[in-house]
Amino acid sequence: MKLNVDYVTKLLLLLAVLGLSNFAYAQRTITGTVTDAESGEPLIGANILVVGTSTGTITDFDGNYSVNVSADATTLEFSYTGYASQRVEIGSQTTIDLALSAGEVLDEVVVIGYGTQKEKEITSSVTSVNAEDFNQGPITDPAQLLQGKVAGLQVYNRGGDPNGQNSVIRLRGISTVGANAEPLVVVDGIIGASLDNVDPNDIESMSVLKDGSAAAIYGSRGSSGVILITTRTGSKEAGKVQFTYNGQVGASTAFNSVPVMGREDFLATGGTDLGSSTDWIKEVTRTGVNNVHSLAAAGGAGNTSYRISGNYRNVDGILDNSGFEQFNARLNFSTKAFNDRVSLDFNSSFTNRKSDFGFREGLRYAVLYNPTAPVNGADAPFSFASEQYGGFFETLGLFDSFNPVAIVNQNRNDGKRNEITYGARLAYQVTDNFSITGRIAQQNTTVDNRQYYPTTSLFRGNATSPTRKGRADFYNENTSFKLYEGYGTYLNNFGNTDLTLTAGYSYQQNNFESNTLRLGDFPDNSQDFSNIIEASQDLQNAGFITANSDASPDEKIIAFFARANATFDNAIFVNASVRREGSTKLGADNRWGIFPAFGVGVNLNRYLAINNVDQLKVRLGYGVTGALPGQNGLSQPIRQIVNGDDGSVSTELIRAANPDLKWEEKAELNLGVEFGMGRFNATLDLYNRDISDFILERTVDAAIFQVDRRFENAGKLNTQGLELTLGYDVLNSGKVNWTTGVVLSTYKTTLEEYVIPKEVRANLGAPGQNGTNMILVAEGQEIGQIWGPVFEGVNAEGAPTFVDLNGDGMVVSQQDNALDDNADFDVLGNGIPDLEIGWTNQLTLGKWSVNAFFRGAFGHSLVNTFRAFYEPVISTQSSYNYVNTDLRVPGLTSAQFSSLYVEKADFFKLDNLTIARSFSFGGNSAIRGITVSLTGQNLFVITNYTGSDPEPSLIDYGAPDNGADIDFSNPDVLSPGIDRRYNYFASRTVTFGLKLNF
Q: Tens of pLDDT along 107-142?
C-alpha cells in the first residue's frame, strides 16, 4: 500500500484551518487561585481541566489560572501531584479559588502512547518516575536514572566504561532474539529518539510501558517495551525568567580489579624473569576526573512558554585515554492561540559527542602480561630494538601477548557523533469534545569513528614486519529518521461514564548509509589521518586498501491505530486498541500485521469499602505486538560495494533473500494488583509472554542460497515473570520524613521451539580452548544454561578429572561430545538472575536530605574466563602471568573448561548515596535557592565472585583473540553468563554537586 505523505500532511493542516472557521462557540473565562490547604502557599503547575473535554490549563508561579470554557461546560477538575483531586461545579461562577489537600497520587496524570491518562484509570503495567526520584550523581545515560527504580527494567553497564559500549537496557528479560531487544524511546512524542541526545538535567519525568497492552499502540517498535520521556518546559508567567545551573565535579577509580600474581609469586611458579617488577593494571588505569555543567533558562508570557538549555560533560574513564566530551542543547517552545483552541509545541535538540573509546584490551593484557617485564624497551635485560616499537618493550614471538601500556598509549580509537532532532506538534480543539493533532519530526545522525595503529605498534600495527606496516580504520555512518503523524481525540461524559476515543495514522522512514575504509602498510608514521575523507585522498601512501559502502534499502513503516478508553462509575476502567502496521523490511505477501490489545481494571475498594484501605485495584491486560530486527531489507538480497586495492570496483552478495520471512509476534498477558493503605502501597504484576516466529540471522547452505547468511523465522520463546513494588512512609512528621521503597523482579525464559533441537554456543576461545562452547540452547529448556563437565579433582599428571555423571564407568568430557547422549556434561549454572532487587531510602531532616539506593541480583552465575585461561600454572605458558584467587587449585597444570570456573555471582551493593543541603533566599535576592550535594556511586559490594564485576552479563560478544577486534554490532542474547576478558573493570565514583536557582 502506498500513501503520499505530503498529501496526508497537507490534509491535516487543511482540516485544522477548516475547523477554525467553525469556531463560533459562546465562551466565558474562569479565573482563580489554587493553594495548599495546610500552608496556604500557592501551588505552581496545578492542573485545571474542563470535565468531559481536553480543555485545560495550569497555574502560574503565584498559583493563578485562567481558563476559557464553553457555555455548556459544567465542571472543573483540579489536580496536583501528591494532592487529592477535586471537582467543582461551575454554575454561574467566574472566579473559583480552591485549596487542595495532600492525598494519594491516584489522580496523577501519566503520559501514555498518544495521550495521557489518570494513574487510577490505567489498565496496563505502567511505571512513572519523576525527576525527584531519579538516581543521583554523574549519570551519563538517562536509562541509569531508572536503574533499580522500575520493577522488571534491567539497566547494566558492566564495569566502568564511560562510553557504555556493552551496556544493556532490557525490559522483562529476553523480548526477542534477533530484533531490537531494547525498549523504544519516545522523547516528547518523538518516536525512536536517541537516549544519547537527552541530557539527564533536561528530563522532567519518565514513564515505562511494560506490558503488551500498553505498548501495542506503538506497534513493532514498541515490542520490547517503551520508555516515554517528558522534558522540562518553561513557565507562562510574564516577566519572570528562571535560570538553573547544575554543576558536578567527580573522580572515578577502579575499585575491584582482577587479582593477579606479583613478581615474587610469579617467579615461584617458574615464570620467566625479565628483570623488572611491574603492576600492569596500575600502569594502564588512572583516577578519572568528571565535569558536568548545565545551564537552563525558562520563562514565558501569556499563553507562550519556553525553555532553553545547554549541557557540557567531560568524563574521563578509569582506563588511560578513554572517556568522552559532550555538548547538548535543547529548546522547548509552547504557545496557544484562538482562545486556547490552537496549541503549538516545538522541540529541538543538538548533540555533539567526541569519544575516546580507548582500548579495553589494555585491561585484558594487563592481567596476563609478564609482571617482570619492563614498560620501556630501554629497561630490558637484553639488547632490544625499542625504537622499532615506539620505545616500548614487547615480548616478541609469543601468541596473544602485547604490552598493555603500549596498547593504550600508542594507538588511537576515537569517534565523533553529531545528532540534531526537531519536532513540532500542532493541535486544534475543534469542539470542547473533539481535537485533532498533527506531529512532524526528523532526526539526523552522523557518526565518524577512527582507529589508527602506527608502524611502531605491535598490537594490530604489524610492527615486526620488515617492510611496510601500520593500519588505519575509518567508519562513517549517516542516518536520517522522519516521522509524520496525525490523530484525533474525542472525549465525553455520559452520566457515570467517561469515554475517550483516539484514532490516527503514522508514517516513519529511516535512511541509512555507511562507508568503511581500511588502509595499511605505511612507509612511516606521517599518515596521522583525522577523517575518512582525508584518508581517501592519500590512498597512494598505503600498501593495501579495503573499502566498502553500504546504502541499505530505506525502511518505511505505515500504521493506522485506534484506541478507546472508558471509565464506568469512576471504578471500572476499560481500554482497547488496535494497530495495523506495514513495513518495507518484509516481502509484499507478509508486509502487514494487525496488533490488538485489551485491558480492564476494577477499583474493588469502591464496592467493598474496606476500612483503612485507600486503594484495591485489579487489572488484566493482553496485547500483541510485532517485532523486526534493526537491519533494513530483511527479506531482500543485500550486496555491498567493494573497492579493491588495485582500483577495481565490484559488488558482492553478503546476505541471501528470504521472501517468506514474516512478522515476529509477541503476545503478552498481564495480571496486576494495586493496593494502598495509609502510608503503605504495593503493586504486584504477573505476566506470561509468548514470542513466536522470532527472527534470527542464521548460517545457511551457500550452495543453495549463494551466500551462507540470511534471516529466518527460527522458533518460539516463553517468558513468565513476577514484579513487586512496595512503598512505605516510615516517618512523616513535618521536618523529619523517611520514605522507603523496594522493587523486586524475577523471570524465566524457555526456548519452546527452535530450528534445531539443541546446540552449544559461546566459544571460550584461544589460547588452547577454541571450540569450547559454554552455553546450551535446547528446545524445552531455559535460556542461559551454562554447560560443561563437573570438576572433581586433579590427577597425578596435574590434569583435571571430572565426575562420571551417568555412572557408566566412562568419563566423556571432550567438547566434540558435548551433545552426545553419553556425555558427562551438566548444567553448571544460569547467566540470568533468579531475583533482582532495588531498595530506595529517602530521608529529609529539615533542609538536609539523604538518598540511599541499594541494589542486588541473586541466582545468576558467571563464567570467569580470566580464571579459565590464566589460573592453572602451565609450564608452556611461563611467560604469561596467572590469576591468583582463593579458588585456585594447587597442582593443576592444564586448562579445560568445567564447573571449576563457573561462579555464583550473587551481589548486594550500595549503588548510590547522596547527601544534600539546600538553602533558600527570600526577599529580592537574585539567587532563589542553592543546593550542595555529595554523591558516592558503587560504594561497597557484597559478593563471593572473584572477578571484577558480579553484575549479570546478559549479552555475549564472542571471543576475539590475539589482538582481534571486538564486534559490538553482533550481540548474542542466547548466551548470557560469560564474563569475557575484554570487560571493563568496576569503578567507584565520588561527586560534588552544586545547583543554583536564580
A: 566 667 787 778 788 888 888 888 877 877 667 677
- Rounded Cα distance, 699 and 709, in Å: 5
Angle (CA) 804 819 795, round 5°:
30
Considering only the C-alpha atoms of the chain, give the largest distance between any 2 of them, rounded to a whole number of Å: 100
DSSP symbols for 275-320: S----HHHHHB--EEEEEEEEEEEEEETTEEEEEEEEEEEEE-SBT
Residues spanned by CATH 2.170.130.10 within the chain? 115-231
Q: In sequence order, what are the beta bridge partners of 389?
A: none
951 pLDDT band, cuts 50/70/90, is very high
Instruction: Reply yes or no on whether the pLDDT at 736 is more than 90.
Output: no
Identity of residue 20: L
Any residues with CB less than 8 A from the CB of 843 and at least 6 apart, and which? 737, 738, 849, 850, 851, 852
Residue 541 pLDDT level (bands cut at 50, 70, 90): low
Rounded Cα distance, 572 and 118, in Å: 13
Task: Dump the DSSP string for 80-125.
Answer: -TTB--EEEE-TT-SB--EEEPB--STT-EEEETTEEEEGGG--S-
What is the 3-class SS of 100-111, one letter each residue? ECECCCCCCEEE
Looking at residue 485, what is its pLDDT?
A: 95
Q: Are 884 and 261 in contact (CB under 8 A)?
A: yes
As a CATH number, domain 115-231 is: 2.170.130.10
Mean pLDDT, rounded, for 832-841: 95
Whether the predicted pLDDT of 9 surpasses 50: no
Cell numbers linked to 331: 529548546
For residues 742 and 720, give the distance between their C-alpha atoms in angstroms, rounded to a whole number. 21
In the chain, which segments carry CATH 2.60.40.1120? Answer: 5-103
Give exposure, 919-940, as e/b (b: 16+ Cβ within 10 Å): eeeeeeeeeeebbebbbbbbbe
- Integer Cα distance of 967 and 970 in angstroms: 6
Q: Which residues are within 8 A (CB) of 299 and not within 5 positions of it... i.e. 6 or more apart?
A: 234, 235, 237, 240, 241, 242, 305, 306, 307
- pLDDT for 973-987, tens place per residue? 899 999 999 888 989
Tell me: pLDDT of 404 over 50. Answer: yes
Q: Where are the alpha helices (DSSP H) in 193-257?
A: 212-215
Domain 5-103 has CATH 3.40.50.850: no
Q: What percent of the chain has pLDDT over 90?
A: 54
Long-range CB contacts for residues 919-928, cutoff 8 Å, separation at least 24: 919/847, 920/847, 926/998, 927/996, 927/997, 927/998, 928/242, 928/997, 928/998
Yes or no: say if 900 and 791 are a contact pair by the CB < 8 Å rule: yes
- The predicted model scores a pTM of 0.84
In 882-976, which ranges are E strands?
A: 902-904, 907-920, 929-943
C-alpha cell at 715: 522458533
User: Whole-number mean pLDDT of the chain?
Assistant: 87
